[in-house]
Amino acid sequence: MTDVVRLQKEVRRSEEIIELLKPPTILLNHEIAILPVSGYVGRDSFDLLCEKSSQWLYDKEVETLLFDFTGTQKGYDGFIQAIHAFCQQLQLLGIQVIVTGLNAKLVQEWSADDFWQKDIKFYATVHQALHDLKIEIK
């Protein structure tokens, strides 16, 4: 294999890794974004998601984040505390956090946790949150 071919493969692999590391954040407008979390959430993947998302949200000057757990089945032990820590980090960056789509199990864990923040708004669906924010959905 020539050096050029090897380097091309390395570049392609690096581009794939970069793509995987991008947060799945959806920018609705210049001030509101949605961060969907789905499936089983592992500690490493959630930590990486938080790290990449916080920088992305800060760079885009997002004012409000809808943190959506509609597709989340369950998380690791300490998942709720990690969500709290991430929400607090975002609030320190000046980003209002709205949590949507918690399932019954996550709600039980959330409400049993002593550290949860009462200044976070909760909605059953993203649609409800957007309606309250006066964002028109087409």
Secondary-structure element sequence? Answer: HEEHEHEHEH
Tell the overall outline.
Answer: globular
The spatial strand order of the largest sheet comes to: 1-2-3-4-5
Report strand %.
15-25%
The number of E-state strands comes to 5
CATH uppermost class = Alpha Beta
Q: What is the percent of helical residues?
A: 40-55%
CATH superfamily: STAS domain
The overall average pLDDT, rounded, is: 83
Unreliable stretches covering 5 or more consecutive residues: none
At CATH level 2, the architecture is 2-Layer Sandwich
Distance between the first and last residues' Cα: 53 Å
In this structure, how is the largest beta sheet organized? 5 strands, mixed
- Alpha-beta content class: alpha/beta
Number of helices: 5
Radius of gyration: 17 Å
How many separate domains?
A: 1
Stated plainly, the CATH topology is called: Transcription Regulator spoIIAA
Which key terms come to mind for this protein?
138 residues; alpha/beta; Transcription Regulator spoIIAA; 5-stranded mixed β-sheet; 5 helices; 5 strands; 23% strand; STAS domain-containing protein; STAS_dom_sf
Summarize the entry for a quick read:
It comes from Listeria fleischmannii subsp. fleischmannii. Helices cover 48% and strands 23% of the residues.
What would your notes on this structure say?
A five-stranded mixed beta sheet has the order 1-2-3-4-5. By secondary structure, it is an alpha/beta fold. The protein has a single domain, classed as Transcription Regulator spoIIAA.
Present the secondary structure layout.
Elements: H1 3-21, E1 26-27, E2 32-41, H2 43-59, E3 64-75, H3 79-92, E4 96-100, H4 104-112, E5 121-123, H5 126-132
Parallel strand pairs: 2-3, 3-4, 4-5
Antiparallel strand pairs: 1-2
Helix pairs in contact: 2-3
